[in-house]
Each structure stands twice: as C-alpha cells, then as structure tokens.
Design brief:
This protein is of the alpha+beta class. It has one domain: STM4215-like (2-Layer Sandwich), CATH 3.30.2000. The chain contains two helices and eight strands. It starts with a helix and ends with a strand. The relative contact order is 0.21.
Length: 140
C-alpha cells in the first residue's frame, strides 16, 4: 500500500468538495489527517483505526486489506457539525469500486451510527463516525 487510508479519504473528501485540505479559515471546512488544529472551529479530521486481517483470495493477484478509519467533525453549532458528518457518512457508506491514489476501494462500510464526543476546550461540538475500507492496489 502506498499510503495510509486516512490520506486517501482526505483526498476523496477534498475532491467531493466537503472542505479544503489544512484550511484554518473560520469560514471554510478544513480537512486534516490524524491531527487537527487547536483553534479551528470547522474541521474534519480523518484518523486511521484498527481494521482486520487481509483477505487472501485465489482469484485476486493482491490481497484485500480491511482497514478502519474514523471521521471526526467539529463545529461551534451542534446541528452544523452533525449534519456535515451525516453527509460525509452518506457519501462514503457502501461506496463500491472507487479508485483513489492508485488504490482500489472495493467498498467502504459505515460501522455504526454517529457518536457525540462532547465539546472541546473552545466549546466546539465533536462527533465521530467509524468506517471499514476494503482496498487493494488497483491493477492496470
């Protein structure tokens, strides 16, 4: 694999106009990998999480990796943060045969419902949603 799943998902969400990579503007949704800025009120952060053992199949040249990732969204307005994460969840859930950065995502599956994490030190409401991505190197 060429990079963590979080980097691929970040690129996909930017391409789908969910936000701008590493933007710290208070009026634009910033999309980050692993670490989010301390003071940004509108942020989307993708973090790699635990997955499962790769699937090895006889008819495929490369094993399918099952990798977990979490999308965390925060905003000062509760409903704005929840709505943004819901839209991201609807876009990613049950995505099939998607190629991002030379990786073929056979499918991406939501792993449960939106989870409220509380508020941060700046009174931003935080939510998370977990996914499992089935991916492999795209054959050309």
């Amino acid at each position: 694999m060429s990079n963590p799943v979080s980097f691929d998902i970040k690129d996909y969400l930017v391409a789908q106009s969910f936000g701008t990579f590493a933007s710290t503007s208070s009026s634009v949704w910033g999309i980050f990998c692993v670490m989010e800025p301390e003071k940004n009120k509108k942020s989307i952060t993708i973090v790699d999480t635990v997955g499962f053992k790769p699937l090895n199949t006889i008819n495929r040249q490369t094993p399918t990796r099952r990798e977990g990732f979490m999308v965390k969204v925060r905003d000062i307005v509760y409903t704005t943060a929840w709505t943004k994460l819901d839209a991201i969840g609807n876009k990613l859930d049950n995505t099939y045969q998607l190629t991002i950065n030379s990786q073929l995502y056979d499918t991406i599956v939501k792993q449960g419902d939106i989870n409220y994490l509380g508020v941060d030190e700046n009174s931003n409401h935080m939510f998370s949603l977990n996914f499992l991505a089935y991916r492999r190197v795209a054959l050309t």
